[in-house]
Specification:
about 500 residues; alpha+beta; single chain; 12 strands; Beta-lactamase; 6-stranded mixed sheet; two-stranded antiparallel sheet
Length: about 500
């Protein structure tokens, strides 16, 4: 026991009451300032209205028996001792500590038992049923796999008529499912062991040739590398417009927004004037043959109400074709944008989808077209497909039926085309990043000639053998006015 508290206790005994203290000793110092116990006793003195404890002393000052075992004072949390000697206090402290440890141990044991019970319930309620289900599924699967054919044969033998009916229904459903699947599956092509680089006869950085009958890729040069498709974008623009426009003879009045779109972005132009009323058909031919930015803007506004809404339709079509993972467009004219991209393979699939649409095929196969006569253009505008008119007299071994070109500085001269041979075989070619518009033409000639005339000699691609005296600027698609003159050039690939 602390000596200071032992002295206090003895002082209590001598004075006849353990709560008796002088406020000050002989030297005039307040004892409560030196003794924490005295200070606490001062707060709970008899003068404050609370009696902290009672007991009897052997001096008889308060009466009673000198029986410390039977006469005990009450114990509260402010008093450190509950008996008159150290051994009794220490026993009580020991007992209380042991009792606390026992309670903690019991609590831990109960908690552990509860956790074990929860784990047991979890095993019974979740894991055991799941295991049983998995086991049953495995058994059923194994049984069906091993005995399915035998059971089916037995059932057919016992119920021949019913089996025949079911078979007929199944065949019909399978045929319908196959037809639906064929319509839903996006256009695709695959490489084979025979797929190879087109060789020195093709100068474009990116090239692709597909046999449409088999879907095999015959020649491939980085066809899955991302490029900016430039005005080849307009193939998808034409397809989306045709699929969403019911009447091609409907009219549309050209706005300042449409003409400004071409001027601001440096696009090729058909030559329409603000306020001029033209047909939707005129817009489609102007889009493909002249690669007109004014026609592209007008188609977007007529079809969807705005360029942004029309681009949403275009990206939805890409998703439908299964190309959204590698292709994304931000405008319908092919103006360069970092987020406007696809691959040569993607463009081939877009072209194949457009070829399945009769209207798109008709527009992309036209060499020359004259727009509707209007007040602004009494004789109409005569426009032509620059690519088709210049490749038609080249010896490629077959006939190039449809085509669309494009140009932006970042992707060079680009082109996508479709050709047929005398034997009826069909091929689709895509090239990008050629040094010039003529180089793109000769690259397509080389690709087709290697298929239509495999024994012919293909000259190496050079600048010299791709030049012509009537060279047209690479950024012009042959847009023309009514007298056939060029109607503009642009950087978006025209």
């Amino acid at each position: 026991m602390d000596q200071r508290y032992r002295d206090d206790f003895n002082l209590d005994a001598l004075q006849g009451s353990r709560y008796y203290y002088d406020d000050e000793d002989e030297d005039g110092v307040d004892d409560r300032r030196d003794s924490p116990r005295t200070e606490r006793q001062g707060r709970s003195d008899g003068s404050t209205g609370r009696q902290r404890g009672t007991y009897s002393s052997n001096a008889g000052q308060r009466g009673g028996q000198d029986d410390r075992g039977s006469q005990r004072r009450t114990y509260d949390r402010y008093d450190r001792y509950s008996s008159y000697d150290d051994s009794s206090y220490q026993r009580r402290v020991y007992d209380e500590e042991r009792e606390r440890k026992h309670r903690r141990l019991m609590q831990q044991m109960r908690a552990e038992k509860l956790r074990q019970e929860r784990r047991r319930r979890f095993m019974l309620r979740v894991l055991l049923p799941a295991g049983i289900i998995i086991l049953l599924a495995a058994v059923i699967f194994a049984t069906a796999r091993s005995g399915g054919k035998a059971s089916s044969a037995k059932a057919e033998a016992s119920t021949a008529v019913e089996a025949a009916t079911v078979t007929q229904a199944t065949d019909a459903a399978t045929a319908a499912a196959a037809a639906t699947s064929q319509a839903a599956v996006p256009f695709s092509a695959q490489k084979t062991d025979s797929t190879k680089d087109p060789g020195v006869g093709v100068g474009s950085k990116y090239a692709l040739l597909i046999d449409l009958a088999t879907g095999n890729i015959l020649y491939d040069r980085d066809a899955e590398t991302r490029i900016n498709p430039a005005s080849m974008t307009k193939v998808l623009t034409c397809l989306v417009a045709v699929e969403n426009i019911k009447d091609l003879d409907a009219t549309y009045k050209i706005t300042n927004e449409d003409t400004d779109f071409s001027y601001v972005n440096g696009c090729s132009q058909v030559g329409f004037e603000p306020g001029e009323t033209v047909t939707v058909k005129d817009l489609l031919y102007g889009l493909i043959l002249s690669s007109g930015g004014d026609a592209a803007s007008a188609i977007a506004n007529y079809t969807a109400g705005s360029m942004d809404d029309f681009v949403t339709l275009m990206n939805s079509k890409l998703e439908e074709l299964g190309l959204s993972g590698s292709a994304h467009f931000t405008n319908d004219a092919g103006i360069y944008d970092a987020d406007h991209y696809c691959t040569a393979y993607d463009m081939a699939m877009i072209m194949e989808a457009a070829l399945q649409n009769e209207t798109c095929r008709e527009v992309m196969s036209a060499h020359v077209y004259t727009t509707t006569k209007t007040t602004e253009h009494p004789d109409g505008l005569t426009i032509s497909n620059w690519f088709l008119r210049r490749i038609e007299d080249k010896d490629c071994g077959g006939t190039v039926v449809c085509a669309k070109t494009g140009y932006v500085e970042q992707s060079g001269s680009c082109a996508v085309s479709y050709a047929t041979g005398a034997d009826g075989k069909e091929y689709l070619a895509v090239t990008a990043d050629a040094s010039s518009g003529w180089r793109a033409i000769y690259d397509h000639v080389a690709l087709y000639k290697m298929m239509f005339e495999p024994d012919s000699t293909i000259e190496p691609a050079t600048t010299e053998n791709a030049s012509e005296s009537d060279t047209v600027p690479a950024d012009s698609e042959g847009g023309s006015s009514s007298d056939g003159s060029s109607a503009g050039a642009g950087n978006e690939g025209n």
